[in-house]
Every structure is written in C-alpha cells, then in structure tokens.
C-alpha cells in the first residue's frame, strides 16, 4: 500500500455557482478527506483560487488533479507536498490565461 502524505492542491477557477460542490464531490467519490479548504479571489480579475489540504496517496492526488483540470470552470490545478514552495504558480496561471486569450483573438 502506498504511503500517505500531506498534499496541498490549488486550483484557479472561474467564479461559477456550484463549483465548490463539484470540487468537494471529487474528493468524496474517492473517499479522500479534506483537512482544510480555502476559496478566495486570486490576483487575477475574475479568477478565484481553491486551496485544499489533504492527506492521501500520490495516486489519488494525481487522479484529483486530472479530474479537476477536466472541469470547464477550472483554469489550472497544481499539487504540492506539504511545505513545498508554490510561489511561482500565480505567474504560471497568468501566462496560461494570456496564451488562452491570444488564441481566442
């Protein structure tokens, strides 16, 4: 059996009604407990950030990330082992949004 670790999952999303329930449902279907949850506006207009702390296996956390990114309202999702530095992600999301906007022009 794979060893469980503490993970921090972050997801940048559009602000849509019902998305919190959808995200929580992804964890529930896999029997993964959410240890902590924060949702707040990010530094990008119209984009919110979900931060979920959980204790699970790497296989399950990868499954969560893949399924989060399949959701239409989710822009990008990241996963870190607890205490890992994740300061670079806001720039990554900003770059991704700029690329996506350029394609839509």
What does this structure look like?
By secondary structure, the protein is of the alpha+beta class. The chain has a single domain (5-104), classed as Alpha-Beta Plaits (2-Layer Sandwich). The chain has helices spanning 19-29, 58-70, 89-104; strands at residues 5-14, 34-41, 47-56, 74-81. The protein has a 4-stranded antiparallel sheet with strand order 2-3-1-4, sandwiched between helices. The longest helix has 16 residues, at 89-104. The N and C termini lie far apart (49 Å).
Low-confidence stretches: none
Alpha-carbon Rg, integer? 14 Å
- State the shape: globular
Domain unit count: 1
Number of helices, where a helix is a run of at least 4 consecutive DSSP H or I residues: 3
The main sheet comes to: 4 strands, antiparallel
Q: Which structural class is indicated by helix and strand composition?
A: alpha+beta
* Helix percentage range: 25-40%
N-end to C-end Cα span: 49 Å
Q: In the CATH scheme, what's the topology name?
A: Alpha-Beta Plaits
What is the name of the CATH superfamily?
ACT domain
Oligomeric organization of the protein chains: single chain
Order of helices and strands: EHEEHEH
CATH class categorisation: Alpha Beta
Spatially, the strands of the biggest sheet line up as 2-3-1-4
Average of the residue pLDDT scores: 82
Number of E strands: 4
Strand composition percent: 25-35%
Give the name of the CATH architecture: 2-Layer Sandwich
């Amino acid at each position: 059996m794979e060893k469980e670790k503490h993970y921090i999952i972050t997801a940048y999303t559009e602000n849509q009604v019902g998305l919190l329930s959808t995200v929580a449902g992804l964890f529930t279907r896999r029997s993964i407990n959410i240890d902590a949850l924060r949702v707040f506006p990010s530094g990008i207009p119209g984009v919110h950030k979900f931060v979920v702390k959980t204790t699970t296996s790497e296989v399950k956390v990868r499954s969560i990330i893949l399924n989060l990114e399949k959701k239409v309202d989710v822009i990008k999702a990241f996963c870190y082992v607890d205490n890992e530095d994740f300061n670079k992600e806001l720039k990554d999301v900003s770059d991704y949004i700029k690329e996506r906007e350029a394609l839509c022009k």
